[in-house]
Amino acid sequence: MRVVSGTRKGKQLKAVPGHSTRPTTDKVKEAIFNMVGPYFEGGVCLDLFAGSGGLGIEALSRGADKAIFVDRDGKAIQTIHENVKICEFEDQSEIFRNDAERALKAILKRELTFHRIFLDPPYKKQQLLKLLEFIQAEDLLEEDGLIICEHGSEIVLPPIVGQLVQRKQEKYGMIAITIYERQ
Fold first, then answer.
1. Residues 41 and 20: beta-carbon distance below 8 Å
2. Cα(146)–Cα(112) distance, rounded to whole angstroms?
3. Keywords, A to Z (predicted)?
4. In a domain, 97, yes or no
5. CATH for 122
6. Domain residues for 90?
7. What does the pLDDT profile of the chain (183 residues) look like in tens digits?
8. Domain contains 54
9. Which of 50, 61, 73, 118 is 20 to 30 A from 126 in CA distance terms?
10. Based on the number of CB atoms within 10 Å of its own CB, is 41 exposed (0-12), middle (13-18) or buried (19 or more)?
């Protein structure tokens, strides 16, 4: 695993030890960022179910101002800290050990909104629709923001969730990427 492009291109990232997480492959990560515009002019991103932190770190490398990383696994949190340090993004990162729903409720209290939200939950415990509905209802996505969902290719997400409209969907073997934008 490595940073694919941007200011930290080529930096090797550590994987979370064990089998509790499934890292996004470099090929899929590159495809995601090609779909959402390869580089960013600032903005804050949220990497929910962050695992090793690869998606949020990639966003920082490509120009995001700040990334908030959330995962409930202690080993994942430790790995994110290590990867953020390797890439020298400590000042642009916030890392929280929490489950997704509690983290989103805590974010609400801070009145934050996001330019990019990465949702990569465990495939077997699919909760993407519930998360999309919450994000939409609580207005956590900026007007020009995108939500990037990584999920099993057998999962079919609805074309519209409130004000969120599916912009694109691509399949890469057993993995699918679905991107939503605010209408």
1. no
2. 15
3. Methyltransferase, Transferase
4. yes
5. 3.40.50.150
6. 26-182
7. 899 999 999 999 999 987 666 667 778 888 899 888 788 899 999 999 999 999 999 999 999 999 999 999 999 999 999 999 999 999 999 999 999 989 999 998 888 999 999 998 876 656 899 999 999 999 999 998 999 999 989 988 999 999 999 999 999 888 999 999 988
8. yes
9. 61
10. exposed
